[in-house]
Amino acid sequence: MGTYYKYAERNAETRINWAEVGKDMTDMVREESRIRQEKKAAIDQQSREFGEYMANPPMGEHQGFNEFTTQFAADSQEYSLMVEGLVKSGQINVRDYTNIRANLQQGAAEAFTISEEYNKHYEDAMQRGEIDPATGYPSSQAYEQWVLGTAQGFGNYSNHRLYINPTDGRVNLGTLDDKGRIKKEIGSYIPVNGLRNRVQTKYDYFNTDKTTGDIAGQLGQVIEVIKKGGVLTREDTTEHEDFKSALDNFVGAQLAIPTNVSSILTNSLGTNPDTQAPYDFTDSPKEAAENPNLILSIANPMQPDSGIPMPAFGVDLREVLKDTGLTETEIQAVIDNNEAQVKAAGDALKIGVKSKLDYKEEATPIFKQTKDDRKIASDVKETETAITNLGYIYNGTEDQFNSAIGFIQGLDPSISRVYVDEKDPNLVWVEKRDTKGNIITMEPFPKGDNIDDFVVSIITTLVPNAVDVEKALANSGIDRNAAKTTHAGVAGESRKPVAPVIPTFDEKLDADDEYSDTPAGVHAEEFKGIGARDGKKLSNAETSFFSKIGIPNAKVTYLDEGKIEAGIIGSNWDNDAVQIMIPGVMTMPIMIPDNNTSTQYEKINRIILDAIRNGTVLTPNDFKSVIDDFAQYNNTTMAEKVIGLEWNGGMGPQPITDDQASTAQTQTPSTTTNTSEY
What's the confidence (pLDDT) of residue 608? Predict the structure, then answer.
């Protein structure tokens, strides 16, 4: 072999082994191919499993739900195939694909289980919304019921649709417009995981009565300091700057919690003092700008992706509303309405605190009292305080009036609402809840022409421990010289307006609610298992029936045979009876002996509902053919000697006045309780 200048023979160890290099490259290509094939196989396996899952979505008895889930299953499979094609072609990376797949699978699972979860938490929410006999208050506030109600849309399959965010695979629930397209406005859509959180979130009732009592107790120390400075009267004390500053600080601390404000507005005040309309909630900023009675609900800024809402108090509203599309005028309107709502809540707390200061400023006794002495003294003081407060309803200032109706509402845990309607400010109405949660409206308390008579009528009815009322009247602070006022207002639970048309016996109570019951269904449930000779149970069932279908002023009374025997004529046996009277619908009460069964009550109630719907006035004769032993219990003797009304051949007092006829035509109350929302 020839050589040339400076040639050095290469060592064998430094030579490249091309055979080995070729083998390594082949192995690497094969490994990459294997990994790709495994990934594709994994993708295919995931796709098949998800496809099988979505091909067999959970079905039920409800056709609307089946169509709802089938549509989502088809959309999910189509979207899954599209994403699978993108990752296989390299248009998206495996990491993004994995995130999308996880979001889609989680959303599908949550979408198919949330309806069951809703039903479970709905029952719990209903119990939390009921009055606890031990405390006299519910566990939850009205906001919890509203938030749960926004999740209830999931069950309205006709105008909602599950859709998938194409960028990340998250599943959302959207509201459809009249053309079947998903709306884009705020509040029209929500992620399914957020919807699930809404179903589970709880908002506790804010005990205004306890809080104002606690604040009044703490202010007692401030008052003592002020008195040492020479201020002697309660009025002078509460006008002192030190007192005002302390009260503002105490109240401000409570209002710093957004859900305290919402509970005060809806559970304590009930209505907007500026508009006299009920407070309610909305998640539409535009609606909140237009309506000062609507409390804006927003996503919690501390957990924006959780779906957990909160009342929009104590937040930077300009920051919250900057991307909502509202004009500057609308944003300012939301802020103004929001500030007015906070002020109303603060004013309510301050009035409540001041109304309790009398208890905190009692003089220390100079003698040792026995336990009984202290109890009597306490009852006397409470009676005097009650009389003073009730006097404010008659002739107090507007603030005193509002404080006084709140005072009445706090007298008894079963009192759910006290109100004076501006259409007739001479009547004070009180509503109570029975043990089943049904609302019962008491006979109104007329103010009349004498403040003492008015106050005594309420005291003796609503204050069970009232003592020495005449002495308390003399010692109270009521002003007998001031003119009677015409203030109107509400304290206690809010009521939502319902349609003023009573359904027929076989129509739904709420035509827009797919699951709404009919009066026939309510009647069957209430009277189930009750036979003849059980007048008390029949009376209770009839009371509950009227309450649940929206006729709260129906008066149903169980009467022992001994109390009405003077009016019973020629019956084969002596029976107790149930008396029914609906003012404005019936000219006089009817008597139903307890040998009548639920069958007769159904016929009676059909007649009543038809009359209310058609605006006609019923006489006892209208029930003659459906009540067994009608004549023995509905006759001249019963009417005139027992009931105290003219019989007039079964027509009742005649003639029927225009007011009676008008009342019958508008008998359905403008406000009532929709128990499906509690």
Answer: 92
Q: Rounded to whole angstroms, how far apart are CA atoms 386 and 223?
A: 23
Place of tokens 């406005």: 185
Instruction: Check if the beta carbon of residue 137 is closer than 8 Å to that of residue 413.
Output: yes
Spatial contact of 114 and 154, defined as CB atoms under 8 Å apart: yes
Report the distance separating Cα 109 and Cα 50, nearest Å: 11
Residues found in the chain: 678
**Exposed, middle or buried: residue 227 (CB in 10 Å: 0-12, 13-18, 19+)?**
middle
Return mean pLDDT, the chain: 75
* pLDDT interval class at 243 (50, 70, 90): confident
Question: What is the reported pLDDT for 261?
Answer: 94
Region of poorest pLDDT, from 92-96, 212-216, 657-661: 657-661
Residue ranges with strand state E in 256-369? 280-282, 294-299, 309-311
For residue 55, count CB atoms less than 10 angstroms from its CB and return exposed for 0-12, middle for 13-18, buried for 19 or more: exposed
Phi, psi of 424 (to 5 degrees): -145, 80
DSSP state for residue 580 in the 8-state scheme? E
Pairwise CA distance, residues 174 & 159, whole Å = 9
Look at residue 572 and tell me whether its pLDDT is greater than 60: no
Q: How many helices (H) and strands (E) does the chain have?
A: 24, 16
List Cβ neighbours of 568 (8 Å cut-off, separation of 6 or more). Answer: 561, 574, 632, 633, 638
Tokens, residue 502? 């009573």
Q: What are phi and psi of 515, to 5 degrees?
A: -105, 10
- Burial profile 114-131: b = 16 or more Cβ within 10 angstroms, e = fewer: bbebbeebbeebbebbeb
Q: How far apart are CA 255 and CA 574, in angstroms?
A: 62
> Is the per-residue pLDDT at 552 higher than 60?
yes
Confidence of residue 374 (pLDDT cuts 50, 70, 90): very low
Angle between helices 192-200 and 142-151 (to 10 degrees): 150
DSSP state, residue 323? T
Question: Structure tokens of 247?
Answer: 């009260």
Which of 217-221, 248-252, 319-323 has the weakest average pLDDT?
217-221
CA distance 234 to 226: 10
Predicted confidence band at 580 (pLDDT cuts at 50, 70, 90)? very high
pTM of the shown model: 0.45
pLDDT at 338 over 90: yes
The confidence score (pLDDT) of residue 53 equals 46
**CB–CB of 601/538 below 8 Å?**
yes
610: helix, coil or strand?
helix
The closest alpha carbon to 109, from 193, 199, 201, 189, belongs to: 193
pLDDT over threshold 50, residue 479:
yes
Q: Which residues contact 238 (CB under 8 A, 6 or more apart)?
A: 244, 354, 357
CB contact at 8 A, 594 and 535: yes
For residue 303, the model assigns a pLDDT of 72
Tokens 């605190």, located at residue: 353
Which of 323, 296, 329 has the alpha carbon at shortest distance from 184? 323
Vertex 191 angle, CA 188 and 193, to 5°: 140
Q: Which two tokens stand for residue 65?
A: 């739900």
Longest dimension (CA), the chain: 150
Residues 6+ apart with CB under 8 A from 525: 517
Question: Hey, what are 249's tokens?
Answer: 């600080």
Per-residue three-class SS string for 186-250: CCCEEEHHHHHHHHHCCCECCCHHHHHHHHHHHHHHHHHHHHHCCCCCHHHHHCCHHHHHHHHHH
